[in-house]
């Protein structure tokens, strides 16, 4: 009788040992929650306003409530055509989008001088009968 009990216990140990090892492997493979967290995506935020200052040396445009950095990646447009920072003057209305950089400053991604250019309206042709 002792041999049968001993045999059953040994068989149970042999059968459950691989299952226990697999459970430990799965726990070791799971990355920590901080490793799986993805960094927040940087979405562009729209802006509009009247220019109160332009600093070509510092590469900034100031609106009444914020200062926008103009970077090498900033697209500046005027009447649908590419423009430069020097084309922006105080008192002009501008619109566009910006993203916050690592330092918390606002980097302009797009600036439309005088607002975004509107597409030309198509003329309707009148048919003569």
Please give a handful of descriptors for the protein shown.
2 helices, OB fold (Dihydrolipoamide Acetyltransferase, E2P), 129 residues, 6 strands, alpha+beta, 5-stranded mixed barrel, 2 domains
Could you explain how this protein is built, in words?
The protein has 129 residues and is of the alpha+beta class. It folds into two domains: 2-36; 45-113, Copper binding periplasmic protein CusF (OB fold (Dihydrolipoamide Acetyltransferase, E2P), Beta Barrel), CATH 2.40.50. Helix content is 25%, strand content 35%. The protein has two helices and six strands. A five-stranded mixed beta barrel has the order 1-2-3-6-5. The longest helix has 28 residues, at 2-29. The radius of gyration is 33 Å and the shape is elongated. The model has no long low-confidence stretch (mean pLDDT 80).
């Amino acid at each position: 009788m002792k041999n049968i009990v001993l045999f059953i216990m040994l068989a149970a140990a042999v059968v459950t040992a691989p299952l226990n090892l697999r459970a430990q492997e799965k726990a070791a493979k799971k990355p920590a929650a901080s490793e799986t967290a993805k960094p927040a995506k940087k979405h562009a935020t729209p802006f509009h306003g009247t220019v109160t200052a332009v600093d070509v040396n510092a590469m900034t445009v100031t609106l009444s409530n914020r200062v926008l950095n103009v970077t090498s990646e900033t697209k500046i447009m005027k009447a649908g055509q590419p423009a430069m920072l020097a084309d922006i003057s105080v008192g002009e209305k501008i619109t566009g989008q910006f993203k916050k950089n690592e330092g918390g400053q606002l980097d302009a991604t797009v600036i439309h001088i005088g607002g975004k250019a509107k597409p030309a309206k198509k003329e309707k042709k009148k048919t003569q009968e």
